[in-house]
Amino acid sequence: MNDFDQRWHSATQAALNATDNHAELPFGLATRVLARFENNPAESWVDLFTALGLRAVLASALVFIASAALVAAQCYDSVLSPTLIETPLSPRVFLP
C-alpha cells in the first residue's frame, strides 16, 4: 500500500467516525483566507495562453492531418466517370 492509499484510508475512516457537531468557524478565518489569496502570486495570462494555445495548435494540427488522410484515402477510391443515372445528363454525351 503506497502513501496515498494509506492517507486516503485514514481520511475515510476519520470521516466515517466523525460526529455531526458542526462547530462555528474561528473569528477572522475569512480575513486570513483572503489575505493569503492576495499574497500568492497569480499566474500571468501569457503563461496560461501559451500552455492552452500550444494544446490548441497541436489538436488542430492532428485534426488537419487526420482529415487530409481521410480525403486522400477517399480520393483514390472514387471513380471520376459518371454513373449510369448521370450519363444522360452529362454534357459529354452530346459532344461529337
Question: What features would you describe in this structure?
Answer:
With 96 residues, the chain is mainly alpha-helical. It has a domain at 44-76. It contains three helices and no strands. The chain has helices spanning 3-16, 29-39, 45-77. The mean pLDDT is 78.
Question: Secondary structure elements and their pairing?
Answer:
Elements: H1 3-16, H2 29-39, H3 45-77
Overall geometric form: elongated
The main sheet comes to: none
Count of helical segments?
A: 3
Gyration radius (Cα, Å) is: 33 Å
Distance between the termini: 85 Å
- Which whole number gives the mean pLDDT? 78
Please trace the helix and strand order, writing H or E for each element.
HHH
Outline of the structure:
This protein has 96 residues and is mainly alpha-helical.
Overview features:
0% strand; single chain; mainly alpha; 96 residues; 3 helices
